[in-house]
Write a structure and sequence with these properties.
The complex is a heterodimer. Chain A is an alpha+beta fold. Chain A contains eleven helices and four strands, in the order H-E-H-E-H-H-E-H-E-H-H-H-H-H-H. By secondary structure, chain B is an alpha/beta fold. Chain B has two domains: 149 residues, Rossmann fold (3-Layer(aba) Sandwich); 66 residues, no CATH class. The chains are: A alpha+beta, B alpha/beta. The structure holds adenosine-5'-diphosphate and magnesium ion.
């Protein structure tokens, strides 16, 4: 029982560190996927008195991916249906052209404002409509989470590393008699600390495994899919698996570094 | 390790607290292959002197050399190296309680980096010498005090050390275990030429090998015979 508690007091802080790190990785990956997804979907509508070409627009704004002219017949159809009384045949003659403009990546508000300004300066363009959708709100929410997670990551990291250090110190005390006796017979440092290293490797492995399964569970639950409204942007279990490798390395680095610090002290006779 | 004087002590000062000397103004040498007893009243500094020999306590002043290695400002790596040539026996055995008898005896062999086969064979032989055949897989706390000290004896002999340092090895042992310990120390000295330094409060009367006797009083070491 005592040894289980001993393991848990290393596994839990390591789990916290690795969970936080993976949280950051996952959010970043989702954000990247989401950006691609949104930019595919997102367009600006431009009203212009003269025809526009992609080359012409690109000269002003390189981030434009493609433009699509909206059929004016369809616009008139819609207006007719809405029941507005107009001379539609005349309207057709001086009606401006409507374009949908797609961008290479999903813009943030700042660059969107700039793009809007740039487009309005182009001769012939009279109106630029940028639409905000729920997608953007989610995108901003995720960006916000990412920034917050940076902050939490730091706090979790510092406190957990301290806990890891404490636990390894406890182990060191527990095994100090053994390590002292080994030292009396001339055992080198690596031999004396082999037990601490072994415990660290085992516990780091267990922590990594727990984090892996925790994220697997989160990804397979419908919560994230419902929140983001689509499945294609969510990170895959393969992503989590390959991250786990790095998480293991990260956890091992932290715990072995602590073993190193703890065991650098001279072996003293335990009291 | 082939110097004639395997232990050289010169104007040695040992203390735990500054200004409170335990051993002072002490000079003597121990010749390679000799058998030396150190006696003295309780608290006179016998264990302290022995501690300085295996590098647990650094000399405050004077000069201390074991097997040609100066212990005055010894670095950890060098000390580890020196300790591979020592076999130490303590009054409280100092066995690793999480390890079996077999693994305890094997410790110096593992440190020396012998192969598994050599370790196994040597351990088997040693446990026979200390009359513990059949108790290989016991843990120290499952043995009597005398048996534990015989395990410690086997461990101290395992790597054929140049010097054996023993601190009251038979201090509170039964008759039989004491006899086994003394006869093994004797034969190591006689047959292998191992230098033996034993702290004790009573020198056994039926010893067959020649020995020297140092007596500690008031922090000084006197040579008696
Ligand atoms: N670790 C220690 N710290 C401080 N004083 C010690 C320590 N070990 C022993 N002493 C003191 O040194 C003196 C000699 O102790 P020791 O060498 O153990 O005597 P003994 O001759 O009985 O083996 C004693 O007065 C003891 O109190
Ligand atoms: Mg003593």
């Amino acid at each position: 029982m005592r040894s289980l508690k001993n393991h848990l007091s290393l596994i839990i802080p390591l789990f916290a560190i690795l969970f936080a790190a993976e949280f950051y990785f996952v959010i970043e990956k989702i954000l990247k996927n989401y950006e691609v997804y949104l930019s595919r979907d997102y367009s600006i509508v431009v009203v212009s008195q003269k025809s526009l070409t992609l080359e012409e627009l690109k000269a002003y704004e390189p981030s434009i991916l493609k433009i699509e002219e909206l059929d004016s017949e369809r616009i008139i159809e819609r207006l007719k249906k809405s029941g507005i009384e107009l001379n539609y045949s005349e309207l057709k003659n001086f009606m401006p052209k409507f374009y949908k403009i797609y961008l290479e990546s999903f813009p943030d508000e700042e660059s969107l404002r700039k793009i809007k300004g740039t487009l309005l300066e182009i001769e012939g363009i009279s109106r630029v409509e940028t639409f905000t959708k729920t997608h953007e709100k989610i995108f901003h929410f995720l960006s916000f989470l990412k920034n917050i997670s940076k902050f939490f990551l730091l706090i979790i990291f510092v406190t957990s590393v301290m806990l890891v250090f404490k636990q390894i110190e406890i182990w060191n005390l527990e095994h100090s008699e053994r390590m002292y006796i080994m030292a009396l017979f001339g055992a080198p440092l690596w031999m004396r600390t082999a037990i601490l290293v072994k415990l660290s490797v085992i516990d780091t492995f267990i922590s990594t495994l727990l984090v892996y399964f925790a994220y697997l569970y989160l990804l397979n639950s419908n919560y994230l899919k419902n929140l983001l409204g689509t499945e294609e942007i969510i990170v895959t279990s393969e992503d989590i698996f390959s991250d786990s490798f790095w998480l293991f390395i990260l956890g091992l680095t932290i715990s072995l570094f602590n073993v190193f610090i703890v065991s650098m002290r001279e072996p003293k006779q335990p009291v | 390790m082939n110097s004639k004087n395997v232990i050289v002590v010169k104007d040695l000062l040992l203390s735990y607290k500054k200004g409170v000397p335990i051993i002072r103004d002490t000079s003597f040498t121990v010749k390679s292959g000799s058998f030396v007893f150190i006696t003295g009243p309780s608290g006179s500094g016998k264990s302290t002197l022995l501690k300085s020999f295996y590098g647990e306590l650094k000399p405050q002043a004077g000069f201390l050399q074991i097997g040609g290695v100066s212990l005055n400002d010894i670095k950890p790596a060098k000390l580890a190296f020196l300790r591979k040539y020592l076999g130490i026996i303590f009054q409280d055995y100092k066995l690793i309680k999480e390890w079996t008898v077999k693994k305890n005896v094997m410790l110096p062999l593992l440190i020396a980096g012998y192969s598994k086969e050599v370790c196994e064979a040597q351990t088997k032989k040693l446990l026979k010498h200390v009359r513990l055949t059949g108790k290989e897989d016991y843990y120290p706390l499952e043995l009597s005090g005398g048996e534990q000290q015989r395990v410690a004896m086997a461990r101290a002999l395992a790597h054929n050390p140049v010097i054996i340092l023993a601190d009251e090895p038979t201090g509170n042992l039964d008759e039989y275990s004491s006899r086994v310990i003394w006869s093994l120390l004797e034969s190591a000295n006689e047959q292998l030429g191992t230098t033996i330094v034993v702290v004790t409060h009573s020198i056994p009367t039926n010893l067959k090998v020649p020995f020297k006797h140092h007596y500690i009083e008031d922090g000084r070491v006197y040579e008696i015979a």
